[in-house]
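REQUEST ID: PR-0412
SUBMITTED BY: lab tech R.K.
PRIORITY: routine
TASK: structure prediction, single protein chain
INPUT:
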Amino acid sequence: MHSKILYNGNMLDKASFALPPDNRAFRYGDGVFESMRVVGGKVLWPEKHFDRLRVSAKLLKMQLPAGWSAGFLQDCAAALYEANHPNDPAARFRLALFRSGGGLYAPLCNKASYLIESEALGQAGFSLNTRGAHIGLFADLCKPVNAFSPLKTINAQLYVMAGIYKRENGLGDCLLLNNIGHVVEASASNIFVAGKGKIITPPLSEGCVDGVMRSVIIEMAAKYGLDLSEEALPPVLLEEAEEVFLTNAVQGIRWVGSYGNKRYYNGLSRKLNGLLNEMADTSTGSLGLPAAGN
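STATUS: complete
OUTPUT:
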């Protein structure tokens, strides 16, 4: 059975699907994407994912298809999950939202198209990594701080180069710096640093992605009375920390074992991972699949 994708509301074979050469996602990276963990056909934290898509589309001056909502994401998940993963406990979904039509830098229209693909995951719940990741700094390129910094744009050359650096240097992950030398995030995750009873994570004003799991952890800390604040993160704080962990919507929490010669614990990461599995939201909507502009 060929894997399926959803393209503007149509279920198609992934192997035979092709975008036209003038597609704006291909030509200009004109769009954003969203990675979601789907369990039993249900998106975890659908409202947060939809809200980020809505905010991103507004900033990029793209017109979302009529009827888009958190319920829309749930219906997409249910349909594609049934087609691709009837026997899988969970799956990673990637939704790309990009401007339709042609044009050069100036688009011919601002209507949005969407494409959703999926990949099976081994288990429904979030599982903490057994061995802590060894991380390093990626300092070849800095992440700019502007209105687009919190978005997950499909123009992701910085993250591609960070990924290559990570692989070439045998790292579990690498950290990105902004233009004043502060740590903002990892190559595909937000970062949290803990020590002396306090947790800090860089604020959006430092240039980090407005991650869904970042938001969940911040809310979790408030709910359970943990001392968490959003503060700038110069690299020296990595040497002073007792614990460092990374977060994203698909993997949940990954604890960091070492940075250079510095070693870290994982007690807080284990506690938060347990709470995360208790809090996982699997509510669903009931809207149909709207078609987007072509």
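NOTES: The chain has two domains: 4-121, 133-279.
REVIEWED BY: pending
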